[in-house]
Write a structure and sequence with these properties.
2 copies of one chain form a homodimer. Chain A is an alpha/beta fold. The first copy, chain A, folds into 2 domains: about 130 residues, Rossmann fold; about 70 residues, Arc Repressor Mutant, subunit A. In chain A, about 50% of the residues lie in helices and about 15% in strands. In chain A, strand 4, helix 4 and strand 5 form a beta-alpha-beta unit. The structure holds a DNA duplex.
DNA sequence: ACTCAAGTAGGGGGAAACCCCTGTTTTGTG
DNA sequence: CACAAAACAGGGGTTTCCCCCTACTTGAGT
């Protein structure tokens, strides 16, 4: 198992290196920016690359995307502070092998490396509860299109901070029906569960 | 020279520890939150404490302030990503012994420790050019200023979509206390009694 | 005629936010 | 010291959100 590390914070880089080595892995290369990281991945083809997302030049997401597009054999683990849903979704879409929040690195990195070594995907256990809805971007209008007419109508009312009871009264339907629609919307938008998150999403994406 | 380190990112903590030890200093204690840091400073009275600013419970600034007020002999170095003027100004006002940006830690920490050891103050060379004016004091900030320190801290965590339970765990206080603070915040901001308005207000006014 | 998606509606339950009330302790300042 | 503000903590309550599950109706394909 040859591993490459990239992080622009030298102290974190040293800490990660020491930790990974203590787990019995061989750290072949370290670097502090994405361009170098990608060059090293291209030439040395390490088994695993552990990348920070915030790096000058090319960030970890871009490196992941290029690794994916060039069909390089290296499996990419993103070790990051970013909790934004869209970032995780992009990483996922580009075939990330592992996604860990820095704050939980100590407990999870070992597990993650084992899972990734077996060729499976590891996602931080804590991520679900930590995911944050971020600001709207252009390509998210696309996901709204998956909603049906009634769902969009209800979503707009949610953005206006109406409760399910109020929406039900306005549309002359049962509160239970509104709740049913809310559930479908949440499913279609792939919002994290167990959280009061639809309302925030709605207020950020409408008005 | 006995040194205490506090940082809530375990990897950075390890990296800093390795680095400081490589410079020939003795790291007496490490911890990952401000409350523990202050307790350790009170009891062990290390010569130097190197603190992160972002920590759950009590942040590095608060620890500095308490060390200052209790006239403890420990000299405090803040090792941080924060470039905001007001943060640095507060640190300065509370007698910070050193202020270093994490991105320049490698080049500056050694120099800083020597200077602080001599009893002088060290400020990151890069800081002047990096200092950022924080958000302008518009009318929204005016109302925020009516909040107490703890209330602001909790408001930020609400903006990060933490539940009261999670906030309570992070700050080592009871869930009931967090709920009490929420109520005070709502009163001070004169928010409507409807559900979740605080959450929406917070996400719109922070970040 | 049959299928499928949409919309409708209900039971039951859990988590979280917010309200009311009551206290105590800590801390800063006059 | 005294007083007020702040933080801390608890009981008990309501509403809302969101989940699970099941159903029925309707309209539009191929």
């Amino acid at each position: 198992m040859r591993i490459l590390l990239a992080d622009d914070h030298p102290l974190t880089l040293m800490g990660t290196k020491a930790f990974v080595e203590a787990l019995g892995y061989m750290v072949e290369d370290v670097c502090s920016n994405g361009i170098t990281a990608f060059n090293l991945i291209s030439t040395h083809k390490p088994n695993i690359a552990i990348l920070d997302i915030n790096m000058p030049g090319m960030d970890g997401l871009e490196v992941l995307e290029k690794v994916n597009r060039h069909k390089l054999p290296t499996r990419v683990i993103l070790l990051t502070m970013h909790k934004e849903m869209t970032i995780f979704n992009k990483a996922n879409q580009w075939g990330v092998a592992g996604y860990i929040l820095k704050e939980h690195a100590q407990e999870e990195l070992q597990k993650c490396l084992e899972v990734v070594k077996r060729g499976e995907q590891y996602v931080s256990k804590n991520l679900e509860s930590d995911l944050v809805i971020d600001a709207p971007t252009s390509d998210q209008n696309y996901t709204i299109e998956k909603l049906t007419f009634t769902e969009k109508k209800i979503l707009e009312l949610i953005a206006q901070q109406k409760t399910s009871r109020q929406i039900a009264d306005m549309l002359f339907i049962s509160e239970k029906t509104v709740e049913g629609h809310r559930s479908s919307i949440i499913q279609k938008l792939e919002l994290p569960k167990e959280k009061n998150t639809l309302l925030i999403w709605a207020t950020k994406h409408f008005k």
